From TrEMBL:
Keywords: DNA-binding, Transcription, Transcription regulation. PANTHER family: HTH-TYPE TRANSCRIPTIONAL REGULATOR YBHD, NITROGEN ASSIMILATION TRANSCRIPTIONAL ACTIVATOR-RELATED. GO terms for cellular component: cytosol. Transmembrane segments: none annotated. Coiled coil: none annotated. It comes from the Bacteria. The keyword Transcription regulation applies. InterPro entries: HTH-type_LysR_regulators, LysR_HTH_N, LysR_subst-bd, WH-like_DNA-bd_sf, WH_DNA-bd_sf. CDD domains: PBP2_LTTR_substrate. This is HTH-type transcriptional regulator CynR. Residues 1-56 form the HTH lysR-type domain. Gene3D superfamilies: 3.40.190.290, Winged helix-like DNA-binding domain superfamily/Winged helix DNA-binding domain.
């Protein structure tokens, strides 16, 4: 009964040794089992003559069938969890470092109080890895911001982030721009959202070092577009995977950084920095949605639906304010 699961794990890992470790069996035992399966079927599933483990044509058909069986089992398990009236079940929730540290816990706290019988598992990684794992059915819900592929994922918006520029306090330009500077407290009070709060022209910082995220990240694309609007390319020798790490480095005086207002509001990492609203004709470049995403056409269990509902209620903004900060 476990035959297809053994074969599929070898295919997924492209390695007998890694698959054996995941399956809690020895590598010789796993190799022997797969060989017996191939003998019984009358064809080789894996081409062992190549440097990397590849499927034969017959093996591709076998794995395709195995994936369908695994999906049927997954859907059956999901429906059974529904019947349990949320007294059982499991959700795997994931996000980048900032959301895992400061946004997801507030949702989990309320959800767990409502459904103590549902097991919650957490995963933290950069955005690119998260979506890959979700496509591999290792993650149920992703809390993220920026962009997710609408062809592959469905998303539910929670709140809108505003992008600001943070400059280390020890940079002389901060004193010259003191009439535009905002503090952590100003951001928490949403003063950056007021129309009378003026933004700075980014050409003023064109000669300063700017810490950027890697090219796959939405905030990188926004930063490049904002600088391009002012006809310059940011001077950057540091590229990072996580905005939280970028802010920590900026706090040490190593460069300016584009930062979301939600990070300033929730994290204690944004210290030794002055914050500035950015003057731009493209206001959409200063905004990005924080959302919960899940794989398109997956079965939404009652637990997942409840998690989405709790998150939506938690971050519903009050009149005249930005995103509500959870209590």
């Amino acid at each position: 009964m476990m035959d297809y699961k053994y074969v599929y794990e070898v295919y997924r890992e492209r390695s007998f040794s890694r698959a054996a470790k995941n399956l809690y069996v020895s590598q010789p035992a796993l190799s022997a089992t797969v060989k017996k399966i191939e003998t019984r079927l009358g064809f080789q599933i894996f081409d062992r003559s190549t440097s990397t483990l590849e499927l034969t044509e017959e093996g591709k058909a076998y794995v395709d069938a195995a994936e369908k069986i695994l999906k049927i089992e997954e859907n059956l398990s999901s429906y059974v969890n529904d019947i349990s009236n949320l007294n059982a079940g499991k959700i795997v929730v994931a996000g980048p470092a900032f959301f895992s540290s400061f946004i997801i816990p507030s949702i989990v706290n309320r959800f767990a109080a409502l459904h103590p019988g549902v097991t919650l598992e957490f995963m933290e990684a950069d955005s690119v890895e998260l979506y890959e794992k979700a496509m591999d059915n290792k993650i149920d819900l992703i809390v993220d911001s920026g962009i997710c592929d609408p062809k592959l994922f469905t998303s539910a918006d929670l709140f809108t982030e505003q992008i600001l520029l943070a400059i280390p306090l020890n940079y002389p330009i901060v004193n010259r721009l003191r009439d535009y500077a905002l503090t952590n407290e100003d951001i928490c009070e949403n003063k950056h959202l007021l129309p009378q709060t003026k933004g700075i022209d980014l050409t003023l910082v064109r000669d300063l070092p700017i810490i950027l995220l890697k090219k796959d990240h939405d905030i990188y694309r926004k930063a490049k577009a904002l600088c391009s609007e002012r006809n310059f390319s940011p001077k950057s020798s540091i590229r990072l995977n996580q905005m939280l790490t970028a802010v920590n480095i900026a706090s040490q005086g190593l460069g300016c950084v584009f930062i979301s207002d939600s990070l300033i509001k929730h994290s204690h990492s944004a210290v030794n920095l002055a914050f500035f609203k950015i003057d731009t004709k493209e206001e959409n470049l200063l905004k990005r949605e924080v959302f919960i995403a899940y794989k398109k056409n997956c079965h939404l269990t009652r637990a997942m639906k409840s998690f989405l509902s709790v998150a939506s209620d938690l971050f519903r903004p009050s009149v005249g304010s930005g995103a509500r900060r959870p209590a």
